[in-house]
Amino acid sequence: MSRQDTIKDLGDRLRRMERRVARTEDREPSVGTGHAALDSVLPAGGLVRGTLLEWINGEGPGSGAATLALLSAGGLIRRQDSGPAGTLAVVDRSGGFYTAAAAGLGLSPEGILLVRARSEGEWQWAMEQVLRSPAIDVALTWAGSLDDRVFRRWQLAAELGGGVGMLVRSSEVMGQASWASTRLMVRGCVGEEWAGGRRWRVRVLSGGVGRGAWRAGYQEREVMLELNDETGGLRLLPRLERTVPPGVSATG
Amino acid sequence: MPLSEARAVLLGPVGAGGESVEGLEVVEADEEADLRCLAEEGRRAWRFTPLVSVTPAARPGQVTGQVTGQVTGQVTGQAAGQAAGQDPRSRPESLLANITGCSHLFGDERGLARAMHEEWSGRGFSVRVAVAGSPGTAWAIAHSAHWTGQPWVPLVASPGRDELWMRRLPIEALALRPSVVRSLSELDVARVDRLLDLPAAEIKRRFGEETLGRIDRALGRWQEPLECLPMPDPVVACRSFDYPVSRADWLQEALRELVREVACGLKRRGRVTWRLVCRVQSEVSQSEPEWVEWVTGLVEPSQKAEHLWELVSLQSERRRWPAEVVRLEVLAQGVVVPERPQQTLFKTETEYEATTNGGVLRRGMARLVERLSSRLGETSVSRPVLCEAEVPESAVMLVRVGRERSVERSGERSGERSGERSGEEPWFGAVTRPLRLLEGPRPIEVMAVVPEGPPIRFAWESRAQRVVRYWGPERIETGWWAEGGVARDYYRVETDAGEWYWLFRRRGDDRWFVHGVFE
């Protein structure tokens, strides 16, 4: 078999595997995020256990990807009916995760486990352990450039543990391969006139393999979301509401 | 009640066919077995204090504890005994514990009493807990708890109020001889205050000197020594080398053997441990050998060799072995009686919650925390607790996993003072605090149109940022009396790239800082 044939054969096998996994995914029930607007954005209609999600900051770190990641984690963390509340593990290298802000987003500090890793090796190991543990429902970390093997290990660990791994990343990783089932690009809406809250454009990107990967025929799309400061509610904005041009405004 | 009497009352004469009464099971009282069971429960009480005594007569060679603050728990139900000695205090049904200096670990004495109550009631015992200034008073209150109308609520006598409590109790609380109690009842002396009003000489003449002694014991008028359960010998394994060893793989293997020996020692004694201490002696300088100590803590106590070794080896990965090692020691600390084995095939959620530190830790969480703590260090794994502090840096306190309850308890006690929050309800909106708080505010250059006005432009991480919207100022200021006080005007700003930052201007010198990023 020639080199070209070998590559073609491997490509076919990979596509068959992906299709099979995608079919499995269709049967995997998703868990609502607690925000209908977010559920409508996510390809599976919610979070799928045993998968990784990438939240990519469209601009700098202040774009708000981590905020949306935490909002989406709420469905797995908050106590459902009489059942036990879930646990969010935050694996943080800088130690600057501010729990008070997470509480403002509706996540109880009692359900948060903070893990501080000081070196790259410790961080990779800690994230894998957290993903592998059945006691953790959502694992959140900030990941820059990531070795493909580490990424794959994390994906397998998430499958084993049954939780959801959320990676907050910068737009520099856009060209890199991903083992996440879903990749979302988050950009803040600039200078639009409303009193409080925050608005984003969230673009659901293609890509990803493994459990929770794209359902057949799913298309890339972009939606606008608004977080209300007072109620903490997230809503999907109709297209017409994004027409105000940017400009300086001051409300104090 | 003797067995023959019980049979006569319940079944009729032996051999009359009374044994066929449906549902009735007659078990002969076994005082020795009760005592063994009670002593086992006493060892469980080491979780609360090291000075625990079972009430029956003293056995030689045991430690005597100081008596200043006492708690007694009357454990009935599975451990109840029927032996009726002359001294009611000798019945094998009570634990006496000296809790001096221990209550702060549970918030206060009430917290400790509640924790004790939960410990035994959670495992199916009917338990009465009382705290008082002496063993006699604590015993009396626990045994007369029905008088309060709430016999199963832990009772705590405030310091100096022991006699007030005692005066209202029935005469049986004094643990007098049954014949004396009967005589007093005939004289219509039903409560302790009635008896105490009688002249001591009269009591002595009528009921003997022993009765006076028992009254003094119940009232704590003399310091009653406690014969405490002996603490077990330490579980330790050690290895001395003939020549100094520096090879890490050899030392690692030796350490593994020692951990295995300690695990075997724990298993032999039927105990589990909360932490392992590894001590390494090196001989870098001949004159003064150096000791290095590694402590491996567990979230749930264990005795399994594989589990213990996994944690120790994870920790040894981040340690460097000293050169010229001449001796290794592994010591089990916090050795306790294990929780009772699971009673049903599948635990219910309630049972599970009850057996894992009040429901703080879920299944698997303990193992995860142990692994993370062993590899990353104990301070690297924590849970956040919100505090109502003016300064943002102080609004979150990190506590080690498994110690949240003690923090919450102390918060309950001093909540008004420290302003600790329940953690459920934030006091600000969804987008008013940044998800990332910088470790110390970073100074920045800011352009503002008017002095003390909002920022228009600023530079951050080598990028010029133009502010398109802002919210603020939100003034955060501590009182002049507060140490390291702050006076800041905070602004939430949105840049032309759609990013949000948390800036503040320091009042006084008008310098600007970035304090957080709304990631």
Q: Given the C-alpha coordinates, what overall shape of chain B results?
A: extended
Tell me the radius of gyration of chain A: 19 Å
Task: Determine the N-to-C terminus distance of chain B.
Answer: 73 Å
Structural class of chain A: alpha/beta
What proportion of the residues of chain B is helical, as a percent range? 25-40%
Most extensive interface: pair and counts? Answer: A-B, 70 and 64 residues
Mean pLDDT of chain B: 79
Percent helix among the residues of chain A?
A: 25-40%
Number of helices of chain B: 14
| Total E-strand runs of chain B | 20
Can you give keywords for this protein?
heterodimer, A: 252 residues, alpha/beta, nine-stranded mixed sheet, two-stranded antiparallel ribbon, 6 helices, 12 strands, 31% helix, globular, disordered C terminus, B: 519 residues, alpha+beta, seven-stranded antiparallel sheet, five-stranded mixed sheet, 29% helix, extended
How would you describe what is shown here?
The complex is a heterodimer of chains A (252) and B (519). With 252 residues, chain A is of the alpha/beta class. Helices cover 31% and strands 25% of the residues of chain A. Chain A has a nine-stranded mixed beta sheet with strand order 5-4-6-7-3-8-9-10-11, sandwiched between helices. Chain A is globular, with a radius of gyration of 19 Å. In chain B, helix 8 (200-207) crosses helix 9 (209-219). With 519 residues, chain B is α+β, with helices and mostly antiparallel strands. Chain B is extended, with a radius of gyration of 32 Å. The chains are: A alpha/beta (252), B alpha+beta (519). Chains A and B meet through helix 3, helix 4, strand 5, helix 5 and strand 12 of A and helix 13, strand 12, strand 14 and strand 17 of B. Strand 12 (249-251) of chain A pairs parallel with strand 17 of chain B.
